Amino acid sequence: MALLPILRYPDPRLKKTAAPIATVDDGIRTLARDMAETMYEAPGIGLAATQVDVHKQLVVIDISETKDQLLVMINARILARDGVQEGEEGCLSVPGIYDRVQRAERVTVQYMNLDGQEKTLEAEGLLAVCIQHELDHLKGKVFVDYLSQLKQTRIKNKLMKQARITA
Ligand code: NI
Fold first, then answer.
1. What is the pLDDT of residue 50?
2. How many CB atoms within 10 Å of residue 29?
3. Which position among 41, 88, 118, 134 bears the catalytic label?
């Protein structure tokens, strides 16, 4: 097990598009384990491979309070969206920044689990938000991209200043 370094916005590698995973091998299983450990340690409720600079379609999610409901989604795609919800989001790649984003209230998502089995999940509320947020990462999108240009510039400047201080 290993903790993986998380890319910080506005790192250009966060804009890369992730490729589908052909087979679930030991490398993928190790990646999923390391990503889960990194997410729990942060702590966060979701992490996409893109955020640890691996450009493969893998995300880990756990919105439970007990941190024992790990969801690993490989090659996930959203089949259906329904309704609208708006809530405050944050991201491990955008530390200390929270803002409101509109998302679908419910999603139906199809994915492969770590055993290579095809699964379909209907999610709503926070889980639906988390799935949409993480799958955005795999397309090179962060939640900040939904905010106004002015806010995006402010956030970039703030995080770049912090990076210089901590470097
Ligand atoms: Ni994120």
1. 98
2. 13
3. 134
